[in-house]
Amino acid sequence: MLGPVILAASRSDRMRRLISAAPVTKQVVDRFIPGESVDDIVPIVKEMTAKGLELTMDVVGEDITTPEQATAARDAYLALIDHLKELGLGEKVEMSVKLSMFGQALEGGHELALANVRPVVEAAAAIGTTVTLDAEDHTTLDSMFAIHAELRKTHPETGCVIQAYLFRTEADARRLAAAGSRVRLVKGAYKEPAEVALQQKHEIDKAYVRVLRILMEGEGYPMIGSHDPRLISIGQELAHQAGRKLDEYEFQMLYGIRSDEHLRLAAEGHRMRVYTAYGTDWYGYFMRRLAEKPANLRFFVRSMLSKG
Q1: Does the chain have fewer CB atoms within 10 Å around its N or its C terminus?
Q2: Residue 26 burial by Cβ neighbours in a 10 Å radius (0-12, 13-18, 19+)
Q3: Which sign, positive or negative, has the C-alpha torsion 140, 141, 145, 146?
Q4: How many Cβ atoms from other residues are within 10 Å of residue 120's Cβ?
Q5: Cβ burial, residue 276 (10 Å; 0-12/13-18/19+)
Q6: Which residues of 297-308 are buried (b: 16+ CB within 10 A; e: fewer)?
Q7: CA 111/CA 213 separation, integer angstroms
Q8: Between vectors from CA 103 to CA 150 and to CA 20, what angle results, nearest 5°?
């Protein structure tokens, strides 16, 4: 399986330098990350919302080594919120944040990440939107869930992400599927050991359906994070079985992947949210997109060969 190899490469400085230097890389990266600044992103946000899509915005960058960098990450999100306020798009665009960007891995990182993310959550609420805490590798999750619980005391609309391939996730889903909660379910995109996570695709798919059923039968708001046509169909059926209306759950997909499907689902009346990342520190995000789906890797390799 190439996925684990690519994920290992995402942590390699040598591979980062090699891939970043390839002439074709920027062209391919632009498929998944459509800009480096807020100004780059504004026209895309306007275009997508005009088509009936909603967005969740991610300022990419995870390798935070100083408190000053964590503060800068906070400020980047606050600047994004200011732009969304000017555009009047607070109700159509939320934010996704990785707590590693806010200093979670530093000394005293739990408290630092909470202190940095709180003003982002407050500013988002002030313009009518919210924040979802992205899931990272399994060693960070207890901290993430504790921060999520703390933020929900004052901003109960704050969302979080759970990953189907982890053994713990069914229990997490039962705990989180409560009234007012917002939970995005994804398969999982980090290299995790067999002691904590399923390794085979068919097992992960089955776990995804089990967890999604828990969320649909619960009292919260499920967010189906998948590009898999079969899982999308199953999600629709589970929603129907649970008696959910079209505005009581949503689909989420990545920018640049299955764009026609984004529009199809929106045209059918579904809430369709596009995960849209921007920024200069794109390498880790880009490599995980390659690892998640062989078609993404084939697209990259073909592009490199055609430009060689």
Answers
A1: C
A2: exposed
A3: negative
A4: 22
A5: buried
A6: bebbeebbeeee
A7: 34
A8: 130
- Name the residue with higher pLDDT: 150 or 279: 150
The residue among 96, 102, 91, 24 whose CA lies nearest residue 67 is 102
d(CA 250, CA 244): 11
Catalytically active residues, by annotation: 134, 184
Using the structure block, give the residue that is written with the tokens 């189907």: 164
Cα angle 45, 50, 55 (rounded to 5 degrees) comes to: 40
CA 49 vs. chain centroid, Å, equals 18
How does residue 102 score in pLDDT terms, banded at 50, 70 and 90? very high
Instruction: Please tell me the pTM assigned to this model.
Output: 0.86
Average pLDDT over residues 240-245: 98
**How far apart, in whole angstroms, are the C-alpha atoms of residue 120 and residue 131?**
8
Decide: 252 and 273 in contact? Cβ < 8 Å.
yes
Residue 33's pLDDT is: 82
**CA-CA distance, 266 to 239, in Å (whole number)?**
16
Classified as helix, coil or strand, 125 is helix
Q: Using an 8 Å Cβ cutoff, are 175 and 152 in contact?
A: no
β-pairing, 272-278 vs 250-254, is parallel
